[in-house]
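Example 3.2
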Amino acid sequence: MTQGYGAVPEQERGRLLRYLEAVVAARPAPVHTAVAFNAVYFGFDLGGDGYGGSPLRLDDFPVITFGECAPVLPVGAMVRVATGSDPLYAEIVYREGAHPDLGAFGDVPAWVSGAPAGAEGPGRPENGAAPRRRELLVPDLHAFGPALSLSPAQLHRLRTRRRWINGDAHVVVDVRYPSPEAARRDDLTAYADHLLTTAREQLLSPFVPVSLAELAGGRHDDDLRVGLLGLLDTVRGVLNSSDALRTWGHYAMTRTSLADSWRDTGPLGSDDLRSLAAAVEHAATPARRRYGLTSPVTVYTAVGPRLRGFPGATELLKGVGYAAGVCRANVALADVVQRDSNQGLFENGSRITLDDTFEGGGVWRSHHPGTAETCGDPLIPAGRGWTSTTCAPPEPEAEVDPVDLPLPDDASLGPLALVRMDAKEIVWQLPLRLAHLSDGRLPLHPDVARELHRSHGRQCAARLELTHSGATLDGSEAVQVVTAELGDDPGRLTGVIWPRAFFPGLMLELRWPRGGLVIRVATTRLQESAEIGDRMIGHCFDPRVLTREDAPGSDRHGDTAAGLGPRQLVMRTVRRCGLLTLDGHALLDRSVLPSAVYGRRPARSQAAALESAVVELLAERLLEQAFGSRDAWGQPHFPARTGKPTIPLIAYRPARPRVIRTWGGTEPGSGGPSGIQFVPGHLRRLRPGCSPSEAQRTAFREHCHTLGKADGWELPDGYTFVTEHTRGR
């Protein structure tokens, strides 16, 4: 096997194949050739202990620290992830480029696609002897068995704090390459270099089943390298020969798992994969209203960031699920290109090719018109994005249309809240959503739907009685006969006619007297009306839903950015895509606004129009300036986190907060001091060696909720929280 795949007898290939197929089926992430080598060489237990019973010395593993500079760590490297307590032992199972200029929705500047490590801009390669590149590493934190793995609660705590791993349980580091040549090495050569240098003691351990020194017939570096590369070639050849596996580059997946993903209709299932393929195919196709446009258009799309934009995909892309999602998506795109095109040329005139396999999980190039380009294998990455900035003048830009992006927090907006459940009735509250208004429906509380289903089957007629506090409704609106659909989860009322005065975010209180078929819905008056934008609101509302779903372009007749001017596009995007606080305050990273509006980088004229609109809206105080920070993964935070790069934000605030009570020692209307002073909640520094109680940590989180903070609800080190209180003079 040290002589390569071609030298191995058929019987031995079969034995190795059966084991590797079992390894690929057992591991949750696609198995890279280097990871498959580890499984064979170091002994991966298929019973659940992983490498836990292997002879590896865990203290010899290199240490990586989130957000810092690190040596080259190829896929297959076994590492220790630095934390504030015990280190995490992990195997790197996936790796990709995490260039800071990658757009949040998968748009990629042309020069980034295929650029060499350390490139500083279009046509400007790194001139130094030790280039750096930002990379995303996906560690398998359970590769060493349950004894060396964190509990779900511990892992959730580390993900939430985002100091040692990010919120997806990934590690982002700035990798320092010893030379430009080292940065250009393929995966297997890079892993061989790692094993022969950083992990040499691990590779030549006398406790492995058979040491490489014995297999290669000596300890000389040349003999070890030849033998190691031969073993890696054998493992790769066996993986590629399997009828039960599919490979994407060096990553192997079972065909069963790929078939399951195509049968799945949920997030990242067949519907999303088809949408991804269609988006890439049509990314460069001019819109109908510019049908006469003759200038060529080229769009570069990164798979990894693009997948994060699908509704419900966030949880599935955490941990090693990200590696699985990216590899499956690339396989799906490759299948579409091979099946539906002529060497990448589709019927709509666009040519789709793979341009970069490393950056952002893989960058696909869409070019229109594609008929003038030379043919070639569309799945061999050509790096044409980078070369277009070094060998030819930049391609002319074409205007693009704004996109209708899904709400990033749609599932968490407007949850049902149970008010009371007794023997007589069930009472619950929820804010009215835009989908309820446009579809004429209303979700039922699960307990109500369950009881109605038990007594009336999957569908029945119900009576809906609407009361709008302080207003008189038309008779056809006040009492309606609707349909209760109870077979699905959740149950709902359909055929509802919502009054014109009802708007997204309006709080509803619903009552269901047990045993009947009457649902009563009522609104509640505010003591004082609130002016939100151009809407005067006199009833209780949910500010989060109002911010998200009452934006320009959104009403009960449609929800689209089509036809909006620059000012409306800016306001819509900030409200729908920005970080959202509990009081409806939305904050957006100013640098990503053009990509968020158009789904990718627009033409310079369009970006300039948006910037002019931002300046106008800030001057009119319809938007505000704020400052936050960006973490190592590139995610924005507000307020800014200590030690992180500060970034400008543009903020939408629906209403000015009201001062509940003053700080002073006088009561309103009194002539002098009252003898009582209100002390607001505040931080207090602790003595060295002291730590806050869990009660104070909880109190600080509640305090942050009342302030409407977007994130960062943890006490800083060395401080406790003093809750608000009153004291006498």
